[in-house]
Amino acid sequence: MPSSLPVTAALVVIGDEILSGRTKDVNIGATADFCTDLGIELSEVRVVPDIEDEIVAAVNAVRSRYTYVFTTGGIGPTHDDITADAIARAFGVSLPINAEARAMLEARWQQTGTEVNEARLRMARIPEGASLIVNSVSAAPGFRIGNVHVMAGVPKIMLAMLEAIAPTLEGGQKVKSVTIRCRVGEGTIGVPFGRIQADFPDVKMGSYPQMGQTAVMTELVLRSPDEARLAEAAGRVREMVTEAHRAAGLPLEVEAY
Amino acid sequence: MPSSLPVTAALVVIGDEILSGRTKDVNIGATADFCTDLGIELSEVRVVPDIEDEIVAAVNAVRSRYTYVFTTGGIGPTHDDITADAIARAFGVSLPINAEARAMLEARWQQTGTEVNEARLRMARIPEGASLIVNSVSAAPGFRIGNVHVMAGVPKIMLAMLEAIAPTLEGGQKVKSVTIRCRVGEGTIGVPFGRIQADFPDVKMGSYPQMGQTAVMTELVLRSPDEARLAEAAGRVREMVTEAHRAAGLPLEVEAY
């Protein structure tokens, strides 16, 4: 059942490879879409390097502030995978080999004839008190402790983990949106658009210039969980855009979706 | 001349559209590449919504900590463009219409027959004491105040602004990297790879699983500003990978670049 209170989240992306530019992140966009679908407001994202102090500080800064925290990256078998260590420290708990995680990993390794070694067993180290995030792609689990969900950095595994945790999250009111396409630049409609925003403080309105497109110059996006108010605001914006098109001698049709 | 001290940076991405998933950010990757090219270590990224308090808090948190701060987004003509307001507040300065910015904008508007209005003039509001970031794509300038560089969110304009500021930034020692491709999974080489990292604390080593590829399973990335140490460490990692290939009955060649 959706909560009537706002449900918020932060994402902490962990990894030197994002900050060096070597890997281009796609998990931020995927997490944003995931949250929006569930009525969770993604309120902040931080990207931090593979430095334990930095991960601890970022996770502790956001976990007290938002309903949920998601992290991606740093849960593999190599020395640079230090997310579990950092989360254990952030929560002040120990980091033992988890029997359930070990059993899951060993079952997979047995199937594939893979030897158990110290590096692979790193992936079974789970903070005391955490529950596992089992997923369909990788035998190495993520975990949840308190409101923090620790997931893989590899996008395919990250998506499988998001799918796995979705039923455990309480969603908020879903935010609906209307996009209205405008054939004049945002400088032209800025003043009347701002007036409509002032009349509808409960409907968030954004203006996004579309560079390199000829027919559509600006997309106006309205967002609200209240469909009636959204429709009312969208009506006002459509009228305003029609008027701007008329003044510019353009076709009067206004595309909205 | 490159500084011998580490030169660091943070990026603050401003915009509800990134957090809702509507727009997929590409400025983080572009800024990361830009910094790496200049020998600047991008140390942190934050994505914040179009809420003045959040922008002020994020900018103030990072500007005292890193050599440079970059921001993207929120400098257009509509009511949701509040970055200049937030930066003026973060620095405790006023936000007047800047004569130089106004003249640049009016010259462009005259060319294109665009009327001057209150919305468009928002783009000429520049914090007291800031200098303009003039760019080749848009007549609307970004600005620099203290160590904070305020730029557009539209990627094409953002890139032009990065190009414009590059000559004004002091770069650090450029970090070189070597990538070594490994045909076995990272669990297999995790222990010996960790030992090599322990022997070379001045060379950062990361391991990145390559999902969905058959021949290459793991990329090992070594990074250091010291080319001699990097070459030495890379030699050790190549030997280790050759040994792992031999043990797995795989071809012994090791691809590195």
Concise synopsis of the structure shown:
The structure is a homodimer of 257-residue chains. The first copy, chain A, is elongated. Chain A contains 9 helices and 9 strands.
Could you please describe the fold and organization of this structure?
The structure is a homodimer of 257-residue chains. The first copy, chain A, is an alpha/beta fold and 257 residues long. The first copy, chain A, has two domains: 8-168, MoaB/Mog-like domain (Molybdenum Cofactor Biosythetic Enzyme, Chain A); 176-247, Alpha-Beta Plaits (2-Layer Sandwich). Helices cover 40% and strands 20% of the residues of chain A. Chain A contains nine helices and nine strands. Chain A has helices at 16-19, 27-38, 52-63, 83-91, 99-112, 118-122, 155-165, 186-199, 227-247; strands spanning 8-14, 41-48, 68-72, 131-133, 142-145, 148-151, 176-182, 204-209, 218-224. The first copy, chain A, has a six-stranded mixed sheet, with helices on both faces. In chain A, β8 (204-209) and β9 form a beta hairpin. The longest helix of chain A is centred in the last third of the chain and has 21 residues, at 227-247. The radius of gyration of chain A is 23 Å and the shape is elongated. Chain A starts with 7 loop residues before the first strand and ends in a 10-residue tail after the last helix. The model of chain A has no long low-confidence stretch (mean pLDDT 94). Chains A and B meet through α1, α2, β2, α6 and α8 of A and α1, α2, β2, α6 and α8 of B.
